[in-house]
Amino acid sequence: MRQSEKEKITVKKPDWLKRRLPSGPVYGQTCALLAEQGLHTVCEAAKCPNQWECFSQQTATFLIMGDRCTRDCRFCAVAHGPRHAPDPDEPARIAETVVSMALDYVVITSVTRDDLADGGAGCFAATISAIRNRRPGVQIEVLIPDFKGDRDALDTLVAACPDVINHNIETVARLYPTVRPGANYRRSLDLIAQVARLSPPIPTKSGMMLGLGEKPLEIRQALNDLLEAGCRILTLGQYLQPSSAHLPVDRYVSPEIFADWRRKALGMGFKAVASGPFVRSSYHAGELYGEVRALEPLP
């Protein structure tokens, strides 16, 4: 496979992926608070490389409906096979934690629950409502599964009026059968397009991992597809293999290449873009939302 000099395959993890872990009491306090409330975070479940940084800044992405997924994507560290129905008290505990952490911007995501009739859309809506009741004025971003393309489920979510709706396409179309065997590239794009039609004021967001074997032309095509679907916020980050049972890293993409993709994406028409080796869906999410609202103030 031919590649430019900047994108030669790096077998060993490069220096730019090595970082000093933050230290201090806030990290422990955040862990203790989440444990006390019996809450899950995607930071822990998905082995996010930013967990120590975010927890040390007293931020976290809440993971609702348990910590086990009905799907088994080849890139994801979240455990497979949910054992319990969603906890009806979970929204209240999350709201209490949001108040305790004095959060002004909250990110809520979930495991995929294909075993639920609405895919968990009602749980998202209940969590949004509980947070707003306890902390009025808070901004809420949701990172949602595809709900198997269920329009009623999406209507339920949109009616709850989150400030941002995020759904990651994760990778290019060609790699879906390998990377996301339980998902569908076109279905994910259609979900983003439906949100854009149902509620134009709500910014739509999506993200991709690089380093799974995608080619530059395929990345550009995916970005074009997202733009056509109405996506306005984009995140691009490095895929990191969670364990030997997951897909191997095809290549490590340099910070310079990530910066170049950010410039290209903004030039193509995205309103806000985060692109870098450590970027993940909710990384500095409030800042990206602020960039969009500076360009597109609420009516």
Helix content: 25-40%
Specify the oligomeric state.
single chain
Q: Which structural class should the secondary elements be placed in?
A: alpha/beta
Task: List SSEs in N-to-C order.
Answer: HEHHEEEHEHEHEHHEHEHEH
Number of separate structural domains: 2
What's the mean pLDDT score? 86
Largest sheet: 8 strands, mixed
Output the number of helix runs.
11
Number of strands: 10
Gross morphology is globular
Percentage of residues in strands = 5-15%
N-to-C CA distance: 49 Å
Low-confidence stretches: 1-10
Instruction: Report Rg.
Output: 18 Å
Order of strands, main sheet, comes to 1-2-5-6-7-8-9-10
Give the topology, please.
Elements: H1 25-36, E1 40-41, H2 42-45, H3 51-56, E2 61-64, E3 68-69, E4 79-80, H4 90-101, E5 105-110, H5 121-134, E6 139-143, H6 151-159, E7 164-166, H7 176-179, H8 185-198, E8 204-210, H9 216-229, E9 233-238, H10 255-268, E10 272-275, H11 285-295
Parallel strand pairs: 2-5, 3-4, 5-6, 6-7, 7-8, 8-9, 9-10
Antiparallel strand pairs: 1-2
Helix pairs in contact: 4-5, 5-6, 6-8, 8-9
